[in-house]
Amino acid sequence: MQFQATDIPAVIIVTPKKHGDARGFFSEVYKESEWQKAGLNYSFVQDNHSFSAPVGTLRGLHFQTPPFAQDKLIRVTRGRILDVAVDIRRSSPTFGKHVAVELSAENWRQLLVPIGFAHGFVTLEPDTEVQYKVTALYSAANDRGLAYDDPDVGIDWPLPPGGAILSEKDKRWPRLRDLADAFD
User: What is the mean pLDDT of the chain?
Assistant: First the structure.
């Protein structure tokens, strides 16, 4: 298993080994002992799975507030996404900056998004499936978000000509400068 820091060191690209032959492949996509050797100690409590049929489906930018704040480990099992993590830790030197990483079933990379980041992705292929582990259970009362198109954050989303396909909730998230629930 390979662990690679991004431009924001708290966000880490994880690439599991994939062993293939004529039958297919086998991969240990998460192994606690490997993570601990790398100095990463997380206790995942829930696995989530999303399916997005059209290209341009944008989910995010989401986070949960304490005591239900979540670390996330995201991977793609079918298709391809641009996965984005925005630093919303007010005291961080990278506050308001983001990391964007392409994850796909082909490149087999995963992205570790720690607490204190808003997370989202846009699908780059039809019929994309994303799976992710989280360290806290979902809490509707602690569910928050950040506007995906905030010009102060400046994410260059690769959107199709018709634009992003969003949920009603994701259309209403505030901009970073108006975000009352940023982390300290």
Answer: 97
